[in-house]
Write a sequence for this structure.
């Protein structure tokens, strides 16, 4: 049957079926099935890949493949392409070394050159993030794995501002010696704005509101969706409406301009997923934390066992977790089965019709989510089915993530987890893990902060990012 096959790659149905999405075919189960079939064959073959970043960091991955004479060997290319895509967005890199059976590296290179989804990955991960074209090299000589771990945040002394820029709201917190003395959130609509002045003014407005509650400003830390290097914007969904030319001219250095407006106070902005994981690590007092923020998109980050971060991208919104050939399409990259369509407000909006919930299609996603939350609070089974479906998605996504991250704790944040639906998500995720990955279920612990921390935890953790060494500051013109 076609729903159990994708370009020759055989798919497996989950033991726990999402109530509103019975066609869901988890990536983790397809990978497990192919590798098991390959290893049980008379002559298994293997592919090894190495992703290299410009600074020399290297991530390596090895997978079994079916021998050429196997009846399902045609699925090797799809299997490898999906794993490489996941690695590109999870780890990042601009040079891919591939030691694989003849022809696979060349066909993979053609995918990144000739298909729309492949070109999106190559352009964003290669050109826009690393300023280099994505190279695919067929070789038996792969570089060794190399990575460095850097400490992240945990500086709470003095008077600080923390902010978090989401797709539907921006949050800010005033923090004094580790204690939150004020926090707030403001709705905004950054995705559809083509003038970056909108973004600049919004960020400055949140910072000024927080500053009113502090006697001075010793440091400012922020989190936002996207990739940020030394406070420069490399790639961010918040600026999707801005043309490339305007982005290069007005967005790339916007955060540096904001820092200068605050008299160059210690200032640090990183990916919102990294701050999600940091918030969990700070609260738990431990590492090996995978942070997931289910909001307008899917933010993700990882804190290592020793409490640091690596140079990985951790952009799991673009990483595929569903392998069915007609999976939901990501509106930005055009690819199918990517995490953003399963673990975000976009997933809630997509599941309204299958749940039998009618709303005005013109309503923005945050309003649709609020409607579902109200129904859930009233005990409506249709809303519960949405959260149950999200929970099954999460469980099988974590199975796949575990091949790339060694986590023992999962922290959930974001608007989608707010209210009783958040508990349902975790319950169904646990059920899926127990059914199809009992060892992983026994290893990991879920954490979800209380309502206030869940909504503002990222802004508070962000406040701890910079090391305060400069004199106190006030915004220019205040």
């Amino acid at each position: 049957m076609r729903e159990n096959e994708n370009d020759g790659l055989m798919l497996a149905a989950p033991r726990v079926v999402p109530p509103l999405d019975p066609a869901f075919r988890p990536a983790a189960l397809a990978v497990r099935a192919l590798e098991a079939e390959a290893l049980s064959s008379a002559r298994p073959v293997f592919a090894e890949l190495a992703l290299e970043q410009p600074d020399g960091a290297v991530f390596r991955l090895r997978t079994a493949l079916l021998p050429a004479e196997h009846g399902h060997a045609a699925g090797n290319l799809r299997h490898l392409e999906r794993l490489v895509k996941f690695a590109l967005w999870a780890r990042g890199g601009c040079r891919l070394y591939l030691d694989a059976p003849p022809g696979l590296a060349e066909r993979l290179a053609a995918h990144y050159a000739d298909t729309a989804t492949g070109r999106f990955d190559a352009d964003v991960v290669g050109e826009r993030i690393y300023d280099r074209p994505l190279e695919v090299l067929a070789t038996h000589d792969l570089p060794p794995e190399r990575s460095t771990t850097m400490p992240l945040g945990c500086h709470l002394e003095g008077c600080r501002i923390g902010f978090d820029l989401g797709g539907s709201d921006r949050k800010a917190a005033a923090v004094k010696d580790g204690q939150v003395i004020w926090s707030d959130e403001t709705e905004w609509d950054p995705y559809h704005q083509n003038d970056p002045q909108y973004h600049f003014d919004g960020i400055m407005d949140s910072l000024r509101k927080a500053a009113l509650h502090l006697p001075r400003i010793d440091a400012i830390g922020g989190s936002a969706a996207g990739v940020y290097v030394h406070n420069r914007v490399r790639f961010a969904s918040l600026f999707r409406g801005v043309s490339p030319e305007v982005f290069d001219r007005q967005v790339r250095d916007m955060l540096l301009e904001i820092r200068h407006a605050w008299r160059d106070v210690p200032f640090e902005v990183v990916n919102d997923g990294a701050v999600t994981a940091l918030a969990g690590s700070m609260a738990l007092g431990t590492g090996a934390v995978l942070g997931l923020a289910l909001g307008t998109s899917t933010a993700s980050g990882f804190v290592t066992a020793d409490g640091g971060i690596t140079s990985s991208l951790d952009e799991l919104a673009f990483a595929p977790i569903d392998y069915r050939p007609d999976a939901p399409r990501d509106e930005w990259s055009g690819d199918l089965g990517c995490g953003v369509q399963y673990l975000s407000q976009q997933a809630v909006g997509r599941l309204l019709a299958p749940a039998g919930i009618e709303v005005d299609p013109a309503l923005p996603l945050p309003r649709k989510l609020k409607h579902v939350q109200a129904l859930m609070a009233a005990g409506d089974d249709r809303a519960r089915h949405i959260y149950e479906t999200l929970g099954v998605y999460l469980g099988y996504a974590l199975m796949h993530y575990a091949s790339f991250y060694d986590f023992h704790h999962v922290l959930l944040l974001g608007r989608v987890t707010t209210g009783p639906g958040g508990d349902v998500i975790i319950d169904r995720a646990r059920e899926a893990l127990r059914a199809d990955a009992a060892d992983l279920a026994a290893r990991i612990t879920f954490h979800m902060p209380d309502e206030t921390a869940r909504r503002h935890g990222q802004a508070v953790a962000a406040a701890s990012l910079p090391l305060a060494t400069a004199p106190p500051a006030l915004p220019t013109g205040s």
